[in-house]
Design a protein that fits this description.
The complex is a heterotrimer of chains A (410), B (287) and C (677). Chain A is an alpha+beta fold and 410 residues long. Chain A contains 15 helices and 12 strands. Chain A has 3 domains: 203 residues, no CATH class; 129 residues, no CATH class; 53 residues. In chain A, the strands form 2 sheets. Chain A has an 8-stranded mixed sheet, with helices on both faces. In chain A, strands 5-4-12-11 form a 4-stranded antiparallel sheet, with no helix packed on it. In chain A, β11 and β12 form a beta hairpin. The N and C termini of chain A lie far apart (58 Å). Chain B starts with a helix and ends in a 5-residue tail after the last helix. The chains are: A alpha+beta (410), B alpha/beta (287), C alpha/beta (677).
Chain lengths: 410, 287, 677
């Protein structure tokens, strides 16, 4: 079986129908309301497949459900019993785009490093991924800058290229080969002309981006701590705390775990999507929150997506899908951020945090109080901490906490 | 329909999120809001397989409440069971406090990096604890005493808000009787019944005759107290990698995945919660 | 796993989202991208709107109070008991002794059926709902000025306004998707004027920010209009052609002394001039406002002033302009539209009009009481002297949301008979004699109307939890036990009846609602496309009416014993009385506890510290609550959100009301603060 084949478009439905008979077929469907979502397709003829628009949310919910039951637990007398819940999965994800597929490959790494995540792998191991290369990037797409598209070199089970009346099919991993071999009569061999045409489509796609985004400069400025404090302040003000960026991002996977009681004798432990931009994400039981200020959380988010990912996985985890760009209330999406960081004039001064500023930062005093204390301090000559304690604005404990921050104890 | 790959996952990949039931063998009231629970594993196998290092923690599951990270306060050499000292702070810990002998909890772990024993062998140890912070230190102290020849002089400085808030009172007395172990206790606020030291931990330096020479300092307690102590130790000449402490962060999975406890590129539950001051300085504090 | 498109259950932005359903449970939501307001995103509440549906506390069985305790019962006995007791009270004391609270969270169909039940079966016009506490001044004030009490333009038009004036609305926290359109406008170069006694987050983006003292809105509005008049910035053509009573209005306005502005409101004339010139100096300017304008004893006056301002500058009746009262609850607009009000039937048709009554009597096949009923506030006031003996409260929680809680709770306690239908055992349900478990928004079909008058579908995603029933079913089953048969095959059938009787909903049918994104009322017949912006060409009442408003101060001002202003309100992660939001983990985690916002200068003077408790005392009662220091409140003012049952802000508020709208003055009362020893 060769690695490249042609599937005439008139055969697509037939091919998918065969798949849908044996496994769960998930494909992007434009519903009656005009929204394109990845849906479980039981009858291929009844739905309107949409291979042109970007689905509203990435397919990550099929691997990391928004709410996932990890196990059921119950009380039997004094006994406390746990019973895991693992669904049987057998499915084909058709019509993925390179950005979303790349995100799944990213999850494959994340959910197997240090330990293998049984729940993720249960869903992932029996899912075949069929990519559709983007022959026409959309307005806010920047997968080329993010190096996750518009076409992939590996990682897919099958990769389709839309050539007008037919698809150019590349076989990648064994899952793809299995599908094609099973229903080989749908496919035709590839000619050199086909190959040339496909290559041209790839080149054209790569040149069709409206958004060129300089990840490298932004990441290096970030890592070298050259980003102005004022930018973080502005981002913090603009963020409206909706959590949307984390919910729609293909590579965001932070989660919360909680017990959900069903009755007095049983319940479920569930894993749910979480967003690091929310205040409660890091707040401790006693009320202390190391990321009390919103701008710290925004900073952490971008750090994690860009610098941390680069450090750990050798490249930022942003796939350039453009979803956050389209939905952010305050317009502090990835493109805006990178552009602003890159356009900053030169090296910014490293802000050396003084105690007063630390206290202000942590929400322990207000700007007016700091100003008043500084004025008083000019007369009394007392250290700012002592002045503020004397004025009853803060307690010794607050100072100690600030001291901890100053010493670098987070 | 399940295929080979999925079957393989079911057979080969363990479930790191699934707790195992443990039963409460004993409950000891330390103070008004702190109790020490001794736990036993349900079947012998699991007990044999459960090993840990001092400074590690477990995630304790409480019925219909959820999970919370609790430091292990017994030594790995202790054969009587796993001990956890728990302060009543909220819903979940309140529920644990209502449990009695025979009740069951869930356990996951041990997690965290534990104290860096390799760095402590042959050194003098200065262990400073505040309030419930003595709990993880107790694991270390008991271990050190059981492997006495491996370590040098041991000084334990312990403080709590009032005499009623002191934990492990029996252990503190017992440790003081051990060879080359010096225990000094203080309370921050005076009371009629207390006859010992009064004042913050930082008032004990002279009495304890601290020297940074060949000494490793390990501090556990409320972040505010830790800050003051670290400040003084640095002034005394302790090296940045000779000061060790634990960081507290909101934790959920305990295995470095869910993101809650991340600081910069580290996860407090995996790369910590024990860190040297040098490592802490390298963590981006504004993140 | 499948998905069901529905409308969010929290605020009145009306975002549409898909509920993800798997194995009979709702496991997630996905926003609609095509929806003109949702636009692919939701606010934090929207993203977590499903989190309460499967909570353990959901009422699953009817409860009947036996020997002081609520115990589980079956539907038969519960409904029989309710019917029996309500009939008894009706027979003995007349229909007027019964009162009904309808729900701004329930569907249009349910609101219609409940007010029908009240009027046709119980023979009472004592029907009201929580709009009383929020936008009743808008309903009346804008009706007087324009002829229609709703948002004049659609939400998406805001993106194309040149100037937006936001007053008394903490838009980014309460109507995040509307704030998003404001941000869009700003990105296009629009200017923003924010007028609010608190430094709300939106004020950071304002080009002009004015911080008036609480309860002084008429002063700065009149001041602004005086400046516009003096500088000739008014739209004379518009005034001449579209309005009336202008001469009488200007005769008094001319005499307005601008010195009052700073003296009374604290706003400097220079700042007000900047705002006035900005607002009046463009073609397309919009005003949006919310509780900060309405929840005052001068609420209706405040609304009339806003209407005056818009008419003066010709910024109404045109696209990308208008006056936007931002409604709160997901269906408070609909509840008003459906006539869950004491003086009107559906479509704001006057109950006192014999012609209107006859129209309804024909379809409802029974006589209807003709005298205006009591408002929600008056109903509870009338319990003490036995004028109201029995109440049916559906999906409302006055035991936490009404002012002067001590008196409110005493009234609920005093009621001869109280039946409550809700999804959780709320503070109000705890007073009930019978509690009926209701189905949530995800468990029933119906329609809801958003703040921009957009009528949309909610769709059933899962069957009702436990033995709960949709309120539509509860009302019909109850009615049939009370000699008044109400039977509908579906909610679509109810809407057909509504369409028949309600001109502004005349063309609303379910098959039309399934195409496109709902219908804007007025939609008077099946071919009418709906009306995104109102008053095109002429005001609903013909000509817009100017009415000069004289300033009246708040009912209770700070004095020596109670020297602080208390203002109450809401915060982003929570929703009203918290019965839903505090049971959703992600939301509750954001703000698990009650707090009071105090200015640091005041805190220092009083000796209270951040995160420590403080006692807040008013003439009505006191609460103890944690301090949160912030510069966002001016000195001498404190802010307490009303979501938290353990520190209810409404223990402190008073129930003096606006005379026209009967809305309590939630936004201003006097308190004192004391350290906790």
């Amino acid at each position: 079986m060769p690695d490249e084949l042609i599937l005439n478009k008139e055969h697509l439905t037939g091919f998918l129908r065969k798949i849908a008979n044996e496994r769960e077929l998930i494909a992007p469907v434009k519903n009656q309301y005009g929204d394109t979502l990845f849906e479980i397709v039981s009858c291929v003829d009844d739905v309107s497949l949409d291979l042109e628009s970007r689905p509203v949310v990435p397919p990550k919910n099929f691997f990391l459900p928004r709410t996932e039951i990890l196990f059921n637990y119950r009380h039997e007398g004094k006994e406390y019993r746990f019973e895991e819940a693992l669904p049987d999965i057998s499915r084909v994800l058709f019509g993925l785009r390179s950005c979303d597929l790349w995100a799944i490959l990213f999850f494959d790494v994340v959910f197997q490093e240090n330990f293998k995540d049984r729940y993720y792998l249960n869903r992932r191991s029996n899912t075949i991924l069929i990519n559709i290369g983007c022959h026409k990037p959309m307005q806010n797409c920047f997968c080329k800058s993010a190096q996750s598209g518009p076409f992939l070199a590996y990682g897919y089970d099958l990769q389709f290229t839309d050539m007008g009346d037919r698809f150019f099919v590349e076989i990648g991993r064994p899952g793809g080969r299995e599908l094609v071999e099973k229903w080989d009569y749908f496919f035709e061999p590839v000619t050199q002309k086909d190959r040339n045409e496909q290559y041209e489509i790839v080149l054209e796609a790569e040149s069709g981006f409206e958004r060129i985004v300089d990840f490298d400069t932004a990441v290096s400025r970030f890592i070298n701590d050259e980003v102005d404090e004022a930018l973080w302040e502005e981002l913090g003000n603009r963020c409206q705390g909706c959590g949307g960026c984390a919910y729609v991002c293909p590579t965001c996977y932070c989660f919360d775990i909680a017990d959900r009681p069903v009755s007095d004798s049983k319940g479920e432990r569930v894993r749910t999507h979480d967003a690091c931009t929310l205040a409660g994400f890091t707040r401790l039981a006693g009320g202390y929150n190391p990321r009390h200020e919103r701008r710290r959380r925004i900073r952490r988010r971008f750090y994690h997506k860009l610098a941390f990912a680069k450090e750990r996985y050798h490249r930022p985890s942003c796939v350039g899908c453009g979803r956050c760009v389209e939905i952010c209330f305050g317009r502090i999406d990835m493109i805006h951020f990178i552009r602003t960081v890159c356009e900053q004039p030169g090296k910014a001064m490293k802000a050396s945090l003084r105690l007063g500023e630390i206290l202000l930062d942590a929400g322990l005093i207000s700007k007016e109080e700091l100003k008043a204390a500084l004025e008083k301090q000019a007369d009394t000559g007392k250290p700012i901490g002592a002045q503020l304690i004397e004025d009853g604005v803060i307690t010794k404990e607050d100072v100690a906490r600030a001291l901890g921050i100053q010493l670098g104890i987070p | 329909m399940r295929d080979k790959a999925q079957t393989l996952v079911r057979e080969m990949v363990s479930n790191i999120y699934l707790p195992r039931p443990v039963s409460i063998k004993r409950v000891k009231e330390e103070t008004g809001d702190i109790k020490t629970f001794t736990l036993g594993f349900k079947d012998q196998d699991k007990k044999d397989r459960f090993t840990f290092r001092p400074g590690q923690f477990v995630l304790v599951s409480v019925f219909n409440c959820g999970e919370a990270p609790i430091s292990i306060c017994s030594s790995p050499t202790f054969s009587g069971g796993l001990q956890l000292s728990i302060k009543k702070m909220g819903l979940l810990t309140g529920e644990i406090h209502r449990c009695t002998k025979g009740d069951e909890l869930g356990l996951r772990g041990p997690y965290g990096n534990g104290f860096p024993l390799e760095q402590l062998y042959g050194r003098d140890l200065l262990l400073v604890g505040g309030g419930i912070g003595l709990a993880p230190l107790r694991s270390l102290i008991e271990y050190v005493i059981s492997e006495r020849s491996e370590f040098g002089q041991v000084t334990v400085l312990y403080g709590a808000r009032t005499a009623q808030d002191l934990v492990f009172k029996d252990d503190l007395s017992a440790w003081d009787t051990e060879k080359d172990v010096n225990v000094i206790t203080t309370v921050y606020r005076d009371s009629a019944t207390w006859k010992g030291n009064i004042g913050p931990l930082t008032s004990l330096w002279k009495k304890a005759a601290i020297s940074p020479l060949n000494t490793k300092a390990i501090i556990c307690g409320h972040p505010a107290i830790v800050s003051y102590v670290v400040f003084d130790l640095l002034k005394m000449g302790f090296g940045e990698d000779d000061i060790i402490t634990t960081l507290e962060r909101h934790m959920k999975c305990g295995v470095g995945k869910c993101g809650h406890c991340s600081i910069g590129s580290k996860f407090t539950c995996r790369h910590g919660p024990v860190f040297t001051y040098q490592e802490i300085k390298a963590l981006p504090s504004v993140l | 796993m499948h998905r069901v498109l529905t409308t969010c259950c929290f605020c009145a932005c009306g975002c549409n989202l898909y509920l993800e359903v798997e194995a009979g449970k709702i496991i997630g939501v996905i926003p609609s991208r095509e929806h003109p307001v949702a636009r692919g995103n939701l606010c934090l509440k929207g993203w977590n709107s499903f989190g309460f549906v499967h909570h353990k506390d959901r009422l699953q069985y009817p409860l009947i109070r036996r020997k002081k305790h609520l115990v589980e019962a079956n539907w038969e006995e519960a409904l029989d008991l309710v019917a029996k007791r309500l009939l008894e009270i009706k027979e003995r004391h007349g229909g007027r002794s019964l009162g009904v609270f309808s729900s701004a969270k329930c569907t249009n169909e349910e609101n219609y059926l409940l007010m029908k039940f009240a009027r046709a079966a119980l023979k009472t016009n004592n029907v009201d709902h929580c709009a009383r506490l929020c936008h009743s001044p808008s309903v009346i004030g804008l009706n007087n000025a324009f002829g229609s009490g709703a948002m004049t333009n659609s939400i998406s038009e805001l993106a194309n306004a040149e100037v937006i004036l936001v007053t008394g609305s903490n838009t980014t926290e309460q109507h995040p998707q509307i704030a998003r359109f404001i941000f869009d406008a700003l990105a296009k170069g629009a200017k923003l004027i924010v007028v609010d006694p608190r430094r709300i987050p939106l004020s950071r983006f304002a080009h002009v920010y004015l911080q008036p003292r609480l309860g002084t809105d008429v002063i700065w509005l009149n001041g602004m209009m005086k400046i516009i008049l003096d500088e000739g910035l008014l739209d004379e053509t518009f005034i001449k052609m579209r309005t009336e009573n202008f001469r009488a209005f200007t005769e008094i306005l001319r005499k307005f002394d601008l010195k009052q502005v700073e003296a009374v409101s604290g706003i400097s004339v220079e700042d007000l001039e900047r705002a006035a010139r900005m607002y009046a100096g463009v073609k397309r300017a919009a005003i949006i406002y919310s509780m900060g304008i309405t929840q005052h004893v001068s609420g209706t006056d405040n609304v009339q002033s806003i209407a005056n301002l818009a008419m003066l500058t010709g910024h109404v009746e045109r696209e990308f302009t208008g006056v936007g009262p931002l409604r709160g609850q997901n269906n408070v607009q609909g509840a008003c539209d459906m006539g869950a009000l004491p003086g009107t039937l559906s479509g704001y048709q006057d109950i006192a009009s014999e012609e209107i009554r006859k129209k309804f009597e024909r379809v409802w096949k029974t006589d209807l009481p003709s005298d205006r009923g009591l408002t929600g506030i008056d109903m509870l006031h009338s319990v003490g002297d036995k004028k109201i003996q029995g109440m049916f409260i559906m999906g409302e929680n006055p035991a936490l949301s009404h002012p002067d809680l001590k008196a409110t709770r005493a009234a609920l306690e005093d009621l001869e008979f109280l039946v409550v239908s809700d999804i959780f055992l709320t503070e109000t349900a705890e007073f009930a004699d019978v509690v009926l478990p209701a189905a949530s928004f995800a468990e029933k079909d119906g329609t809801v109307t958003s703040t921009e008058r957009r009528i949309q579908r909610i769709r059933r995603a899962i069957p009702p939890v436990g033995e709960s029933k949709p309120d539509q079913q509860i009302i019909c089953e109850l009615a049939s036990r009370m000699n008044y048969s109400m039977h509908y095959e579906s909610s679509a059938e109810v809407m057909e009846e509504i369409a028949m009787l309600t001109p502004i909903y005349g063309g609303v049918y379910y098959d039309r609602l399934d195409k496109g994104w709902g219908l804007f009322w007025p939609c008077t017949n099946p071919d009418h496309p709906g009306t995104p912006f109102l008053h095109k060409g002429s005001f609903a009442r013909g000509k817009g009416r100017f009415e000069y408003v004289v300033y009246r101060p708040p009912a209770e001002m700070p004095d020596d014993t109670y020297p602080f202003y208390l203002t109450t309100g809401r915060i982003y992660p929570h929703w009203h009385t918290g019965s839903m939001s505090r049971r959703i983990a992600a939301l509750s985690r954001e703000r698990p506890e009650a707090f009071v916002e105090i200015n640091p200068k005041d805190a220092k003077r009083l000796g209270v510290a951040n995160n420590k408790p403080v006692r807040v005392i008013s003439r009505r009662g006191e609460i103890t609550v944690k301090v949160r220091l912030t510069d966002d409140v001016p000195e001498n003012t404190i802010f307490i959100p009303f979501h938290f049952r353990e520190a209810p802000a409404n223990i402190l508020t008073h129930d003096k009301c606006d005379p026209g709208a009967d809305i309590p003055e939630f936004k201003v009362c006097a308190v004192r603060l004391e350290r906790v020893q």
